[in-house]
Amino acid sequence: MLSAPESQVQELAEAIVRLKKEIVLCAACFDLTDASPCAICRDERRDASQLCVVEEPADLAAIEASGSYSGRYHVLGGALSPIDGIGPDELRIADLESRVRRGGVREMILATNPTAEGDATAHYLADRLRGCGVRATRIACGMPLGGDLEYADPVTIGRSLQNRRELE
Question: Cα(73)–Cα(52) distance, rounded to whole angstroms?
Fold first, then answer.
């Protein structure tokens, strides 16, 4: 930055200020957006009966980039991590529960990361919302496409075997 031209440094500084002023959290799903509710929440073509729960906005973006999901989202803002002092009150779990209890959601897809914290968060959410009449599902995890069993870790191989399915 010190060797960059003054104009580039100024342009970067202005972009950061604009970002801070113009980007907000969607009031419905808590994704980053320039207008609330965001484009996904405003889109009537999206399936409002499916709610994909993710940890962070980047996770939502990754799912959207796949082009394979057409429901709505809920961004938690992280995962449960008692060692880091992150409990249910530090995440948007109460907002998720309110959304589900309002009705209209039939399936809650728990798309938290396949880590100890992500798994704990998914199980916590499934338990907490068990009596709401909503089907709680978890994204599959295991061997990546193009992966080689020889180089996979034992946990990944184990999950691949546990999450196997019929060939169609």
Answer: 5
